[in-house]
Amino acid sequence: MMELYRMTALELGTVLRKGELSPADALAAARERIAACQKNNNAFITVLDPSPTSLGAGPLAGVPMALKDNICTKGVKTSCASKILGDFAPPYDATVAERLVAAGAVCLGKLNMDEFAMGSTSETSFYGPTRNPWALDRVPGGSSGGAAAAVAAGEVWYAIGSDTGGSIRQPAAYCGVTGMKPTYGTVSRYGLIAYASSLDQMGPIARSAADCAAVLDIIQGMDPRDGTSLEGSYGGFLSSLTGDVRGLKIGIPADCFGDGLDSEVRRAVLAVAEVLKSRGAAVEEFSLPIMEYVVPTYYIIASAEASSNLSRFDGVKYGWRAEGYKDLADLYARTRTEGFGAEVKRRIMLGTFVLSAGYYDAYYKKALQVKAVIKKAYDEAFQKYDMLLAPVSPTTAPKLGESLSDPLKMYLSDIYTVPLNLAGLPGISVPCGFDSKGLPIGAQLIGPALGDGVILNAAHAFQFETDFHRQIPETKGGVSA
Amino acid sequence: MTWETVIGLETHVELATKTKIFCSCTTEFGGAPNTHCCPVCTGMPGTLPVLNEKVLEFAVKAGIALNGEITRHCKFDRKNYFYPDLPKAYQVSQLYLPIVRNGKVPIRTESGTEKVIRIHELHMEEDAGKLVHDPWLDQTKCDYNRCGVPLIEIVTEPDFRTSKEVIAYLEKLKSTLQYLGVSDCKMQEGSLRCDVNLSVRPAGSTQLGTRTEMKNLSSFKAIARAIAYESRRQIELIEEGKKVLQETRRWDENKDATFAMRSKEDAQDYRYFPEPDIPPLVISAEYLDDVRRRQPEMAEEKMVRYQQEYDLPVYDAQMLTEQKALADFFESCVTLGAEAKQSANWIMGQVLGQLSAKAMEAKNMKLTPSTLVTLISMVKEGRLNRNTAVKVFEDVFDTDEDVEEYVKVHGLAQINDPTALAAAVEKVFAANSQSVTDYRSGKEKAYGFLVGQVMREMKGRADPQAVNEAVRDKLSG
């Protein structure tokens, strides 16, 4: 039998169901792998020691997984990688966590991330940076860097991340795994500690598109505890993966392949179109003339919501409280000054500014108007195409410390991922090659609202033809050394 | 110079929904601290609000009753500020698209004419918690029981000129909301709270003066006194050549005065923006029709009906409908078989008498309609004379005891034995021959005296009409 960590989640699930292995064996394998990798990549904030559960029904029953540390887990520390939450252990589970446990998932821990999911490198964590299993001197991407690194290194078979502006897709691309942001409203946000409520969406990071489909089948669906969750159930993704893309109309937005895009990335992403074409899809270039607006619009809306969402961390009720305060105002000021990191404070300041009297109309209101324009541009594109193909990130993973010194440049690198959050659309990042340094490259398949099944199927078709998603980083020098 | 006072009101009303606005915690008043709350209403990380549809329904009901326009696409907004009683550090409220706009509330002024108070808007929002200071430990403690109790805030235009108009409006508002069943409007429990915006200007001027906002007004009486105090204070300032500062002032009940809390310069920037966790509300025509259809009969409609259906005078109809609880009481009496006018008389006389003597509101009364109906029928059937019945009524008002039993135990039943009455008349006439002579010589007064004496001889338990007749018969005989 092949080493367990090389398997996809579905493959492991099958082995477990056949009784060739017990859930305890799977758990032991994961523990061993985490013990080997954690000191190198720091993917976990909290490693749990669960007891193996009896094997339930479902394709992923008994398969070990982990959750990003902004997803609430009852009685288990949930930190958002921030000092300010201290040892906060929520008295409730996120809906997503509840549904996974009900489907027989075993949670091995809580994964590292950028503080409050703000960042593209997973370096802003209070618990230290996560490192990319493909090259330990490089970042895994962010903010779900711990999730992508843990899956890439084979520490867990899948993970749940969150994506506000690319935080699932971009680390998936940097770490050579498959990561999907579903349509806004299809996965309940209850229990996800909010960064920007109108943009946040949880989703799977796994080895393959089929694994992502299986996870989505479990976590999707209306939740009465989330007012923004859509009516109905959108599952059945796994069972409808056919790999048949004949007649699928794929649009390639030329505006996403211009200046600023690394040529190796461009070549690898465009090659995806060729593969899908060879299986019967039709590919066409078109113009999506909104790209210059997406980053400013995103940062205004996300920061505005964040400034409000993060106000509750004031040292009064839970989490960490500064010492030596003189009065209430001082308690607030000290706790928040000492409890938040620089990037979080930068976005709180930005968000507070754009909502201030006298600036609201010029920034926040304008951003909402532009958001509507962006959404309309995508609506029009999907009149003509079933799916779009774009890069995930302009480059492969940068070195640790390179990005934070120039936040504006870091923000601009979110250009290909943020418009989906603004428009509420689903996107999946699929491994599509390696650059000359041996770093993974990801391609982004973008669907219309509720077109999650379309992109999963196209990704599945691509992975049927290629084996980029089966590559394990140790061969490139990294993890188990 | 004569001055005119200009007043606008912001009234917060707690809605009488069973559960809170965004979670299923109880809205019940009181309770040990932090026992009526959950992760949602205390704004724990990751939790989300889900709108209680009853809150929307109650707000729409109120909007319709206040003759307002219902906003068909309405939204919630966040009002951001830091304070320990506000666990999310923002209050979910409505700024940009409140559920109701442009309402009208007719009130009756002192001169008896009708005046229309314009409602600027009515919006939905969540209440905050309470801070309790422990001076012994020098600690402030947070009680989040009230967090997330649904409120509507009703904002008027500056249409009031006197405190009497303000009170008339508040009475009307209170009655309307109680009729709708959307709030119990208990000021002492904080379920109706009112802030007063007040400015003064020379009579005849059309420009508004600088206003102050008064808070901490815990009764209608406090509101009237605060208005009197504050307009006097502002007029004196201006007459001394000083300026009124735009500020928030706190009414101090004990000192009978207002004190500055914070000035306009200290005013916070609340950084309102649309609440992303609650989708915009789309109110359909069907929904509105449905709420309209289910609106209860309001005071004005009842007044008309009482006059037509029960043939009550306009005065009675008005008195009975002022408080919903009283109108309900009256209708129950009629349903239980009492005659309408009889019931009205008892309610306006005895019930209102007891309520006002005890400074109570009708809705808190223990006495049930069936008790009053029993009393009325006992009088009608000649089993109890009316004066005794009034006494019995007063005795059982607080307890709602069984009146049949009460009358039996206390031996108060009417004596309808003609022999006993004749004997009493004989006795009284024999003992008061002077009065008999007086009456026969034309002193009418003596008649009443004799009747009273006979009733006394009967220990008050005789049928008054029978006593009258017996005395008259005896005198003419």
Q: Keyphrases for this structure?
A:
A: alpha/beta; globular; disordered C terminus; B: 477 residues; Arc Repressor Mutant, subunit A; 3 domains; nine-stranded mixed sheet
What does this structure look like?
The complex is a heterodimer of chains A (481) and B (477). Chain A is an alpha/beta fold. Helices cover 36% and strands 13% of the residues of chain A. Chain A has helices at 9-18, 23-41, 95-102, 145-152, 169-175, 209-219, 263-278, 291-309, 328-339, 342-355, 361-384, 407-412, 418-423, 452-465, and strands at 44-47, 64-68, 106-111, 158-163, 178-181, 201-206, 249-253, 282-286, 387-391, 427-434, 440-446. In chain A, helix 4 packs parallel to helix 5, helix 6 (209-219) packs antiparallel against helix 14 and helix 8 (291-309) packs across helix 10. Mean pLDDT of chain A is 95; it is low at 475-481. In chain B, 39% of the residues are buried. The longest helix of chain B is centred in the middle third of the chain and has 20 residues, at 220-239. The N and C termini of chain B lie far apart (75 Å). In chain B, the strands form 4 sheets. In chain B, strands 2-6-7-10-1-11-12-13-14 form a 9-stranded mixed beta sheet. Chain B contains 15 helices and 16 strands. Chain B is an alpha+beta fold. Chain A binds chain B through residues 70-72, 78, 80, 85, 88, 90-92, 94, 189-194, 196-198, 224-228, 304-305, 307-308, 311-314, 316-318, 328, 332, 352, 355-357, 360, 364, 368, and chain B through 39, 42-51, 78, 80, 82, 84, 87-90, 142, 269, 271-274, 276-279.
